[in-house]
Input
Amino acid sequence: EDQVTQSPEALRLQEGESSSLNCSYTVSGLRGLFWYRQDPGKGPEFLFTLYSAGEEKEKERLKATLTKKESFLHITAPKPEDSATYLCAVDVRRWNNDMRFGAGTRLTVKP
Amino acid sequence: SAVISQKPSRDICQRGTSLTIQCQVDSQVTMMFWYRQQPGQSLTLIATANQGSEATYESGFVIDKFPISRPNLTFSTLTVSNMSPEDSSIYLCSVEGRQTHNTEAFFGQGTRLTVV
Output
């Protein structure tokens, strides 16, 4: 069965304290892995897509990496405005849409 | 990218009633998707809505409970019928950025439903 597991469930950082969020997956036929940011009361906002092991993408303080079994979202020198829930999703695409979402990591960055 | 407008943004409803959620996209899209996000949990796909055909429902979701309309390529509705407190959740409309494989999804801001 396809599964996506995110860890930790919640993470509290001081401003400037770098860390990583993990997304591990067990799927057959991965066609893409996605990272989203979700602020309270809003829909998920797309951040990155990764397609193959070894691929990396960067955006400001965020960097996403992918291996054959997991993905990491590295946050370098975070700021309070980075506080949000970060969602990971995998596309197994057997039919029209076959996205499997993780439960998310709730990140809080304190000033 | 696509801009998705969803309404209402939130509602409090009595059990046994129904609520219809609307989703408007600023461009024509083949497929629109409806998700449910229960408190502290991941997004779960309810159904895929294609224009001109019946919606395709995921396991655990049925048309009688969650009827969907898709009258054109920019609009869809999801109705939550005969609501119970267990239906309290955030409901999200989504579309793909491109109509090809391996695309990111774009989401509306969600509808926060509370059933009392």
Remarks:
- Chain A touches chain B through 25 residues (CB under 8 Å).
- The longest strand of chain A covers residues 19-26.
- Residues 3-104 of chain A form a domain with the Immunoglobulin-like fold (CATH 2.60.40.10).
- The radius of gyration of chain A is 14 Å.
